[in-house]
Here is the input.
Amino acid sequence: MGRTPIMGKTKMTITDIEHVIEEKNIIFFAPHFDDMLFCLGGYIDSLKQASLLDSKSFHVHLLFSRSNYQARDDGGNLKTDDARIQYASGVRLIEDQNCLDELIGEHHYTYQLHGFRECFARGKQFADSEMEFPHGMFEDFDDQDKALFEVTKTIIRSQMNRDNTALVFLTAIKEHIDHFIVREAAIQVAQEHPQHQAAFYFAEDKPYGGLATDEEMARYQNFIDTNTLETRSYTYRPQSMVDLAFKHYVSQVEDCYKDGILKRAEQLCEQYQSDATGIDLIHRLP
Here is the structure.
């Protein structure tokens, strides 16, 4: 089993898929309806390819489940009334469950909604990016964000002492504000409760890694270094992730998603000097 930092001059090794997450119970804290696929879809597909999927159980905490966003609908995305949120959230919920049914297996995962209003429903503005998302860190928090941050910490604390359990969060590359809230809530809970039983993991969120600037990737690396996270790499099929995304998340994905996923997979293959079709990363808190 190989475990190495993200960067370095020596050739880096690949972790066998059965050792990427050793715990049986995997609980993923998804900010949005597509984030399970874009963080753990490659890992889950690789487990299936190795006939190891039945060795794990999956539970999704879907946090920001009240959405008004639909791709390619600029006018509609300005609306935050109940009718718009009911429509957009309903579409995205069914898209997500259909994708997870194919990815994991119908009735082979549990799914829990927490009802947070996502970024656009809270009135956040687009970042300067080809992707439609609002950037934000602590200095950008308003009272709504601060309240959601504290509620997220409470939810994480309720799960942190489960046996044989991996709590999985995302790395918030490019700092989508909803992703940042979840990532920072997780690391704060882990720091405040160092005797927690469950393991804490942080998976790369796509397609941000393939679209991020050098400055944004440096902030990502700083998060890993500051928290002394242990990096585990694994091979996966990025085109499979792209295919599932464009099949199921019709109301959410755009062409830049494909570009970001495939570019990041290529970057990591070059970095790891691997001829695999793709490499992905997950980081474990020691």
Observations:
- DSSP finds nine helices and seven strands in the chain.
